Amino acid sequence: MPALTHGPLPARVYWVRRLMILATAVLLVFAIARLLGDGSDASSSGDGGDAASLAADSPSSSAASSSAASTPTPSPTLRATPTAPPTSAAPVLAAPVGLCAGSDVAVTPKVEKGIAGRDVAVVLQLRTMTAAACTWRVSPSALAVSITSGKDAIWTSRQCPGAIPRGDVVVRKAATTEVTVVWKQAKRSDADCSSRTDWAYPGWYHVTAAALGGEPSDLQFKLATPTAATVTVTAKPKQQPKATRKPTKKPSSSASSSR
Predict the structure, then answer these.
(1) For a disulfide at 156, which of 81, 146, 210, 228, Cβ 3.0-4.6 Å?
(2) 213 close to 103: Cβ distance less than 8 angstroms
(3) C-alpha radius of gyration, the chain, whole number
(4) What is the pTM of this model?
């Protein structure tokens, strides 16, 4: 180092050389450190890439990816609540074919409840005896209903044809078709079907029904006594007279003056 500072040249030249040597050393150190740093980064990045490729090529990762691809993503759906199947299916009714003959229609009357003085519903159950199903036109000329008590004729649809409904019905052999005839107020009938006739008394009666050309069917039923309505009267409490106070007598003027 003394050779660099002492010689035939000026001292400034020696200081410049000295600075250049130091700068060269610093540059060498920086370059070596940069090279070492780049090498470590390259090795680490290479290891990461290899690890990633190994992970991608591993059987577990491929199996997981295939299972994820094969399993569909569940989506929200509405599920209907299962209901129990019906115990017995409704029977299939036969379709009507042609018109019914009156002689092929069986009429069975039924009276569930009859009360004297009130309307009595006579239900007529219709069935065919041979055809599976046919159409029958109900009218006063095709159907007859009568009510008797012994030999006494009480009511008949011939005198009151308006009680017979009119219209077409399907009559079947495997099922019953019902038609209702109303005996108005359980009264006797006359030639004009007027409302001025007498009521039928409570007791036992016979109703007979038949289709035109068919066999009549008879039913015995009871006409019950109507129950009187119970009237309940609520007693009203009697109002007590209000107590009255007697007015106080004022003293007379003479008594006051004598005092």
Answers:
(1) 146
(2) yes
(3) 60
(4) 0.55
Task: Give 115's contacts (C-beta < 8 A, 6+ positions apart).
Answer: 186, 223, 224, 225, 226
Contact 96, 135 (CB under 8 A): yes
Fold topology of 102-224: Immunoglobulin-like (2.60.40)
Which of 242, 241, 100, 67 lies closest to 168 in space, CA to CA? 100
In the chain, DSSP finds a helix count (H) and a strand count (E) of: 4, 10
- Regions of the chain short of the pLDDT cut 70: 1-9, 38-90, 229, 231, 235, 238-259
Helix (H, G, I), strand (E, B) or coil at 33: helix
List alpha helices for the chain, DSSP H: 2-5, 11-57, 59-70, 253-258
Query: Which whole-number Å values give the CA distances from 84 to 33, 228, 242, in the listed order?
Result: 83, 50, 75
Within 8 A by CB and 6+ apart from 197, the residues are 187, 188, 189, 190
Among all chains, which residue has been given the structure tokens 């060269």? 24
Task: Give the residues across from 152 on adjacent strands.
Answer: 149
The residue type found at 158 is R
Which residues are CB-contacts of 102 (< 8 A; sequence separation ≥ 6)? 136, 142, 211, 212, 213, 214
Give the integer Cα–Cα distance in Å for 223 and 10.
158
Query: Which residues have a Cβ under 8 Å from the Cβ of 24 and sit 6 or more positions away?
Result: none
Q: Which amino acid is at 256?
A: S
- Cα→Cα distances 189→158, 160, 205, Å: 9, 7, 15
135 three-state secondary structure: strand
pLDDT of residue 76: 43
Q: If you search the block for the tokens 């209702």, which residue do you land on?
A: 180
Cα torsion 165, 123, 105, 212: sign? negative
